[in-house]
Design a protein that fits this description.
heterodimer, A: alpha/beta, B: about 450 residues, alpha/beta, two-stranded antiparallel ribbon, about 35% helix
Chain lengths: ~230, ~450
Amino acid sequence: MQTFDLSKDGLRALNSSLHALKGQTNMTAWEVINPKGAHAIAAGVDAPVEITVRGSTGYYCAGMNKQASIFIKGSAGPGVAENMMSGKVVIDGDASQYAGATGRGGLLVIKGNASSRCGISMKGIEIVVHGNIGHMSCFMAQSGSVVVLGDAGEALGDSLYEARLFVRGKVKSLGADCIEKEMRPEHYALVEDLLRRGEADHKAKPEQFRRYGSARKLYNFNIDNAAAY
Amino acid sequence: MSDFPHTPPKMSWTFSNDVNAEIRRAAATGIYDIRGGGSKRRLPHFDDLLFLGASISRYPLEGYREKCATDVWLGTRFAKNPIHLDIPITIAGMSFGALSGPAKEALGRGASAAGTSTTTGDGGMTEEERGHSKSLVYQYLPSRYGMNPDDLRRADAIEVVVGQGAKPGGGGMLLGQKISDRVANMRNLPKGIDQRSACRHPDWTGPDDLEIKILEIREITNWEKPIYIKIGGARPYYDTALAVKAGADVVVLDGMQGGTAATQDVFIENVGMPILACIPLAVKALQDLGMHRKVQLIVSGGIRTGADVAKAMALGADAVAIGTAALIALGDNDPALEAEYNKLGTTAGAYDDWHEGRDPAGITTQNPELSARFDPVLGGRRLKNYLKVMTLEAQTIARACGKNHLHNLEPEDLCALTIEGAAMAGVPLAGTNWIPGRNGGF
């Protein structure tokens, strides 16, 4: 285990060390102590390593992550795992706004609640939230899946493209062009898989979820839809 | 029949033929007009300025004997690897999707041969442009189409796009006709649907967030790359100051003449300010912060000639960017294609339905047959020639003003032909010492 004291050695040294891990490395386990809400912790990592951050993080922790598994033993600030490419990010606490924004791959697990705009403009990432998600979540979400064990705030999935949204609790309101859709066998299987990988299979069952997706009415401009724009 | 003369038919200035035609078009279709390009209005512009040239009190430089340097460094504030360009005329961001692959390749070829940079656009980085661009600026846009850390790291600079001159406050649009398999794949969208790009970034709001976003990008790229911030000509004094505060190495300022691949005509023509009005305010912001020449300023929007380049630089810009002019150099709107433009219901010089993907020049299209018409090698050569001519023109003017570097041009070298131009540029009306708004009356 490589232990890095962020308060002592600084962000640049941490990220330089992590970026130097190319391909095969024997230094596969890292621990970051004293994060104290610093921004951009472990941003841009591209190696199959495990990084445990012992405390809460600021903006953009694990931004653009590739391959790494990053565990935040606290809460995460805005934009955690933004534009993640692959790998895994697991947050023990809550996540602020924009969690998983524009993510293109990998798995983001939030064991607490996620604030507004969770999964905004997502492009393939998978997100599992054990708690609730805030308003405008999955705005313009293009692809990927989101599983929410709690409730969703206002305007879920506004201007949605092809992302698949599964919510167990209440949805305060749906955004433009987002509708409830039938849960088919492949969706139950997908939710079951995500609950298992998102460490939530002991908390919920697939049949408790409802599915939301795009009505695809805004895919090509039509003046008759002007009120929806 | 009366013998008295009739009042001749009188057309309304307010309800002109153009206006009436647009009312009829809107009534028939129910859709606002979407088009490419920038403002077509007659606007106060560089044409409203003149250089004074040398005189008894100013020595000119010999046109063909004495050196007038043109190079520029961009990104010297924080980046480990600032960009050095031979000429201060860069190629503005234009997306693969809006433009064909061969057109992007030609931009890279021409820019590299002329010693300058080119820029990606809303759609990610293509191999065509990376492979043929010595210096490539990678745009970081609200849509984040194609965004990934590998391309960030193989870029030479990163441009965070907050706005553009054609539509400050607006997002992008690429209509379904141009969403081919390749474009769809790069943007993670189904083929054939209208692609909407958000007007705001998804994971930051305001200058404080932007500062942290830039920190993240710098961390991911090892603080090597210059970070540009591109703004539309809305509130250039404050936006420039906030971009500096957020940590920009370079501010890119785009006036309302700057083109777009597609947006609403009403937006293009009614939102934002002409570049002439923007430059002095941005320069003032940099000067007030003690950052002029430390944070470089690139301006764009209606740059066409070496005279425009020289005027922009005399007002305080470090470099300029061209988009529409580069497309024309490649062959867009060429009268040689008049018959084909006629078939599209338009004429050479007026063709602006770039979003429809039917460009007979093969530039603003994803149609394989049309794209194949365009020769990227020839296009690159034409762009190189054009950039060289513009540079020579700017040097000619600078030498006549006694300047041994384009950066030494200054507002004192200029006068204005119109009151509007004088007020916006902050230079005296020709034949007077009057700068409207600065120093009282005549």
